[in-house]
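Re-running the complex after MR caught last week's input typo. The corrected sequence lines follow. Everything else is unchanged.
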Amino acid sequence: MGAQVQPQGQVSAGREGTTGWIGQAVSGVLLLGLAGLHMVGHHYIVDGGLRDYGEVLQWIGQPLILFAEVSFLVVVTYHALAGVRSILFDLGLNEGQKKTVSRVLAVVGILTIVYGLFLAFTLFSRA
Amino acid sequence: MAVSNAPEGSRAYPGQQPREPQKRVLRWFQPFNRSLGTWSFTLNRVTGIGLVVYLYLHLGVLSLLLVGEESWDTFLAVAKSPPVLVMDVVLLAGLLIHGFNGLRVALVGSGFMVKQQRQLFIGMMVLALILLVIGGTAVFLK
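Corrected-run output:
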């Protein structure tokens, strides 16, 4: 399969690029809802614009909210690091460098999600 | 004029791009002979990089919640200061521009409104601006 021009002007080769683009598009659309919920829930329905410690625990202590926040964490981490990968690949890396970048970003993503899960479930347990 | 999918003057294929990484990035900011599509590409990348930086700053700040109530509530006093509120509005602008421009990219890339992508881009940015005014005002009124 030949190279493809993606809507963002990204150039990718073959199935991997197409899968990556679909992943970015789907996660991006999901983020419109998840980030919207996060912003509204933490900033726009709260007196003073920010939740104090007790209010944070009250918010995260609801199982559905915990699920939404964890989903937000996973999707935003994927979307962010896939975007970084795409930008770095556009700098003209060779195949070896691309593999290294992909592996490093995968590790960063896993660490980010593990940290976020630890944070979310610790607060949930305190609620 | 339609909004091009690829940055102007660039390059449909990797072989046509400059070899030096610095030149590739500097092309994002070339002020001359740019189409609306090139500006939307640059906007998406710049806001995206800013949002990634913010994501990790945000996750770092949230660790104060693990320390306890006193640490978090001390941070809140700083977070409600005017300079930080201005940064919140900048963050909101980045989120809205990246979100709605990204939605346009997803729609056009999926084959929807390909011929109307210029109007779509302008419409999305107007929507982002309206929400920014509403959201930005709410940030200072809360």
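None of the earlier attempt is carried over here. The longest helix of chain A spans residues 95-126. Residues 1-6, 8-13 of chain A have pLDDT under 50 and may be disordered.
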